[in-house]
Each structure stands twice: as C-alpha cells, then as structure tokens.
Amino acid sequence: xxxxxxxxxxxxxxxxxxxxxxxxxVMRSGRLHRYNIVNGEASETALLEAEYAQYxxxxxxLACASGGYxxxxxxxxxxxxxxxxxxxxxxxxxxxxGAIDNAxxxxxxVEVTEELVIDIDDLERKIAEYGSTMLLLSHxxxxxxxxxxxxxxxxxxxxxxIEDCAHTMGASWNGRKSGSFGLAACFSMQTYKHxxxxxGGFITSDDAELMARAIIHSGSYMLYERHGAAPEPxxxxxxxxxxxxxxxxxxxxxxxxxxxxxxLLDEQCERWNxxxxxxxxxxxxxxxxxxxxxxxxxxxxxxxxxxxVEGLDLPDIPNFIARCAxxxxxxxxxxxxEPVGYTxxxxxxxxxxxxxxxxxxxxxxxxxxxxxxxxxxxxxCRQVGTIIRDVFEKFDx
Length: 397
Known about the structure:
38% of the residues lie in helices and 13% in strands. The chain is of the alpha/beta class.
C-alpha cells in the first residue's frame, strides 16, 4: 500500500523576503493609507497599480480591498441598473452571485459543461430569455472557456463581459491573457490565490469612464491623481459628483507585500502547472474517474485540480472522500447536501430565485476538488495522485 501523505493542503509558501522588507519599511513610515504620501513620492499602492496594468497590457488598474469588492464595483461602474439580470455560470463560488446582488443585479445562472466551463448554447438561450446585456464570467477553478467562440456570441447579442479572474491570474487563451477579453476584469489576492496579501483585489480595464467611476467608488476622497494607472484627471472631475463612495481601498502594506510577488508570478504559475500535471498523470486512465481535458489553446494555472468520480454512486462519495482523508489527502465535494468551507453550489444560495440547472446539478453531484499548494514537491503531488487512485480503485462501498 502507498504510504499515507503527511503534508498540509492549506499551508502557503512564506512571503518573499523582499516583500517582508518592503512591508516593514511601510510600517516604519507609518504611512499605510494609500493617499498618505510626501511630495514627490508614489505610494506602494500606486506603483502596484502601474505594474499590474503593465503586466496585463491594460490601460488602467485599480487596487482594492478584495476580489468580491472588485466585481461589485466593476458591475456598478459598467452601469448596472437595479434589478437588471446578470448572467453568470452556475459552477462558481458564492462571492460571484453575491457581487451581482450587492451591485443591485439579479443573478441568472447558466449551465456548465463536463469541462467545467460555461455552456455557450445555454448562455445564448438565456440571453434571449432574460434580455440580459451583461455577463459576469467566472473562470471557476481556472478553467477557461473557448473565449473566441464566447466573444462571437456576446458580440452578436450586444452583451458586455466582465471577467472574474480570481483563479486565472497569469492564465491565457490562445496567447491572450485571461482578463483582457471584456469591458473589465477582476482579480483576487486572497491567501489561496496566485499572489497573496490575505485579501485584496484588482480591476483592470481599457475603458476610461468605467475606471473613473471605479476609482471614485473605491473611496478616492478626490485624491485620484495619486493613482498609478488611472484615466486623465479631467474625466474624474465630472464623474466625482455623481458617483458614491463605497470605501474599498487597498492599503500600502498589502501593496508592498504584493509587488515582489507579482514579479515572480509567471515563474510561480509554471511551478503550479508542473504539480498539476504530476497529480493529473497519476489519475489519468483510472476507470470511472475523469479529469477534464485542458484545451491546447488554454494556458491555465493549476493551483487546484478537479475530477469527476463517475464510477461511484452518490451515497458512496462521502465514504470515498473520508478514506482519502484517512490517507492524508483532503478533497472537497461539490455534491454535498450542505456547503462546507468555501465549497457551495447554487441551491444553497437561498436569496436567489430557484433555477433549473439539470446539467450542472448532474456534473456537480460527482465533482471533486483539491488544492495544490506550492509547498508540495513534485514527489508529493505524485504521491497524492497515487493515493486517490489507489483508494478509488479499491473502493468497495
């Protein structure tokens, strides 16, 4: 029998020493607020905005309090009206419909496919049914839909796209960065994302008016000239009088922690993908267990892995997960009757109107999910994959 695994699925790598030094320097200055600067100084937050805009190839970037806040503000800044239907994929995490609700919209859920991406055919049906002109696309768990095909549908129907890239920072489709296909994109720097400040978010966009509103929404106190990747001040002078302050700024301490991590992002993405492939290789070919196929055009970031346990009956899945846990492997299940930790599905979001999603329900009923921390070695990942396969193949109910 394969040895049990002893690693932690929630242990992150330490913050880089350069980031710690920058953070200490900010604390020593006492100037943690993003607008508290001296003459001739650019704040850490403004520098981070400029650097992330450059990384994305975007004109504008706003650093803010969280990924969920970024989605809320992006929707409001895009002109979302109270009660307006907003389409989003049914396989996502609760902050996505939560952001739609917070912005005053009505979440309309779209079916997903066995590849765990939005079902473009169902999307087109619901555009017609609900008359929606906005899609908040969740690249859930880093799975990127065919963005070329999606863009054609959205363009044909005049639907605006906002991308939730919480799980695709550093990813791309057909050589084009995830987050560069729509009106705006939203990113997260929560601890389990690709750069880590505990909490934090970005909005990127090439739309000057949207970004001007987002900056005022974030709580600029009319100090918008102290931003690192903002539209011309003249535009904000008008918008500031008609845009409410929602106070969701990033601070200089978190920005100082993030800037050195951003410089390492592409290297870290490659490390994640090597670990993903090690787990995937151990699972592939297991009869009754399916790992979604990643398209050749997708450059993903494998910070987690998903697989369908189609060979198990629903009542047996909790036992399978428990046996993996006994061997030291922590797996989450989207088919559980009650939400557990970060894992929930649409029928547990009771503030939404009930929606019929038979394909999504069938897929989520058999869907397992596992983090892949960078604290794991390649050998750790091979061991984890082998344990899952061993438990699955020997499972007897």
